[in-house]
Amino acid sequence: MNGHTTPTDKGFDGCSGTHRTLGPAGDGRKRRADGDYEQAAVRVSLGAVVWFYMGTLVYPEQFVEIVSPYWINVFGLSYVAISMAILLSIHVWPANSPRRRIIAMVIDTGAISFCLYAGNELTAPLAIAYLWVIIGNGLRFGHRYVYLAALLGISGFGVVYRESWFWQEHGTFSATIVIMLLVAPAYMAILLQRLQSVMGQLSWQATHDALTGLYNRREFERRLQAILTRQDWTGEREHVVIFIDLDGFKAVNDTYGHATGDQVLRQISGILGGQLREGDTLARLGGDEFAAIAVDVTLKGGHEIAERIRQAVKHCRSTADGASFRLGASVGIVHFPAGQGHDLHALMNSADSACYEAKRGGRDRVEVAKPNALPGFHPHAIEPVSLAT
């Protein structure tokens, strides 16, 4: 289950529940462009260009003194071939696959290590590029991969140092690179971890209600819009939007204060979540108004969920400052088949109107939006159901 549990508060008995949420909305939408496609293509093209340029046009004598042209061509072609293999593997493994990440890191480290092996006057810029590749690989995939990148970098440089007379003669320079490979990635990993933590908090705050921990109105509308625009869902799939307005909550706020009212709202959020199914979405729209999305449910099934919510709120007795009181819930529901191009705001207005009718009709009741309240809705497409309880 994706999401979180709703906090409960002491001082309110007879109430319990958990918050259940929907997984990432819009799973049927087109997958975002995979950045590894572009990077693999760059590896293929840039690798070929760099090796041709360095091996045949600029530094042939320096390379020949250390490595024969045969091995230069072998390594260059191997790098291009392996990069093409990565490009093909992208079609097999998902974007967040550790295999893809590790293979890319190993190839990049191996390639830059071989460049570093050339030494000579290219040493200084190559050393900077070496650190850039090592740290950059880790930063691409998260702070945990920074340590793996550092390990690969130290291993690669160890091989270079053992085989290269140039690096053996410049021990101070070599030691500096090793120290930087130890310190810089660790420092960057700490910074990245803190940044990810802050970004996670900001992301949570942008989608959740601070008081109850439920989704906020913006996230609720985003998830509902994702359901409405799914192209792979046909009219055979039915969903329900439920609006809940608490009855008697204003009296609690006026009598016992906003602090007690906040405790009641947190408690009620747990009650509401406990009546929903795994995969449903629950949100606080503001004040004492809540809303839920129940997917793959008929009108009758949605009415049963709404009735459970109403009964749960009604039978929850709250106490504060030696006094006890009960709340009620006016519930409005609107049922809609998928794939009929419903408008988000029209759908929410229909649910809100049904909730208002429930409150105007005596409170503590469930009201179903009329079929003609939604433009484009064809009631004959849905078999009539009995809402008797």
Question: What does the secondary structure layout of this molecule look like, with pairings?
Answer:
Blueprint: H1 35-58, H2 60-66, H3 69-89, H4 98-118, H5 123-141, H6 143-163, H7 165-169, H8 171-207, H9 217-228, E1 238-247, H10 249-256, H11 258-274, E2 281-286, E3 289-294, H12 299-314, E4 317-320, E5 323-326, E6 328-337, H13 344-360, E7 366-368
Parallel strand pairs: 6-7
Antiparallel strand pairs: 1-3, 1-6, 2-3, 4-5
Structure report:
The protein has 389 residues and is an alpha+beta fold. The chain folds into two domains: 35-205, no CATH class; 217-381, 2-Layer Sandwich (Alpha-Beta Plaits). Helices cover 58% and strands 11% of the residues. It has 13 helices and seven strands. It has helices at residues 35-58, 60-66, 69-89, 98-118, 123-141, 143-163, 165-169, 171-207, 217-228, 249-256, 258-274, 299-314, 344-360, and strands at 238-247, 281-286, 289-294, 317-320, 323-326, 328-337, 366-368. The chain has a five-stranded mixed beta sheet with strand order 2-3-1-6-7, sandwiched between helices. It has a two-stranded antiparallel ribbon with strand order 4-5.
